[in-house]
Write a structure and sequence with these properties.
By secondary structure, this protein is α+β, with helices and mostly antiparallel strands. It has three domains: 146 residues, Beta-Lactamase (2-Layer Sandwich); 72 residues; 158 residues, 2-Layer Sandwich (Heat Shock Protein 90). It has eleven helices and twelve strands. The strands form three sheets. It has a five-stranded antiparallel β-sheet. Strands 7-9-10-12-11 form a five-stranded mixed β-sheet. A two-stranded antiparallel ribbon has the order 6-8. Helix 6 packs antiparallel against helix 7 and helix 8 packs parallel to helix 9. It is elongated and about 90 Å long. The two termini are 51 Å apart.
Amino acid sequence: MGFETEFAPAERASEEQVAIDYVSIRGNAFAVDWADHIPQMLVLINGQRQIVYANRLFQDFVDQEKDSGDLPSYVGRRPGEAIGCIHARQGAGGCGTSRFCRTCGAIKTILAAQRENRRVEDECRIIRQTRSGEEALDLRVTSVPVAVDRKPFQLFTLTDISDEKRRKVLERIFFHDILNTAGAVRGIAALLQEADFSDLQSREMVELLNQSSAELVEEIQAQRSLAAAERGDLTVSPGIVETLPFLERRVQTFAIRAQSEGKQVLVDRHAVNLVMETDPSLLGRVLHNLIKNALEASSAGQRVTTGCTNLGEHVAFWVHNQTAMEMDVQLQVFKRSFSTKGTGRGLGTHSVKLLTERYLKGRVAFGSTPDSGTEFCVTYPIYWPEPLPQNG
């Protein structure tokens, strides 16, 4: 008896054929052992999208019912039916046949892999019914055509990315809200700067408030850029930069704070002015982090110097401080989870390397000795050798 469908074919293989396929696959001890030990949910499906084998991770995930007869309860079901998708029973032909299935990433990957005979990956958003109620899931699904004893099947894998998706949503909300708050503080500080304060101390306090609020906004934006860069979602926006004025503005951002701590930050008098093509925002983040790190590594009375050098087809920006790094610190610079500032502190050098080498087509290097102190150098092409990439 045939069933109507609003999307994928409804026909199924016979129970006898499904059982034969299951027994055949179970007889391959090596394949079964391999499937049960890979750290990913995996099922093997036939041409009618029915499961003929599932590894242990998938069985644990679907919390399958008690086996009936000689076959596990998942055998013969389609993925949505085994998982418990609330739409799997809304079409007369089961999983894949209702109007809701038109937007299902899982069905789309299976059909595309069958049609095009290639690996296909997508994301799938479902709501499934569990013993404790409904649960919303985000899955990354992949379908790969394979042959078992010359018979066509598909390896269908699932990865639960619900936590990853939740983090992304919360991250976007967090950065949006905190940037709004920090922007409001900065606006108030800017208004106070226009007020007529008669005493020098009040003017200095207002100036410090204004700079601190600007630094807060810059730091939040830097962390948002870093999060996007690590996901590969960061957009590169081309622009023209004059190196010397650009560098001087970065230094000016730290001038008051450095002075209040008894330190000095300045641009080297030999720094050159060049016109280069790059992303001004990302370059600014790199230089901001390098100068900030150098100041934090310096003691009262010490000096941080920065500059830029013409290397022909490239330009080098460098930041120098008078303190040397211990060798065990030097060996771990640029690692994401390592910080010279103590446990749980910044990601400055990691973000410098990530933004420079993955997004700005540059290179980063450093040197540190007791005699010469520490110097970080980032080198970029003056002109891009090809069009700027639009994302990671």
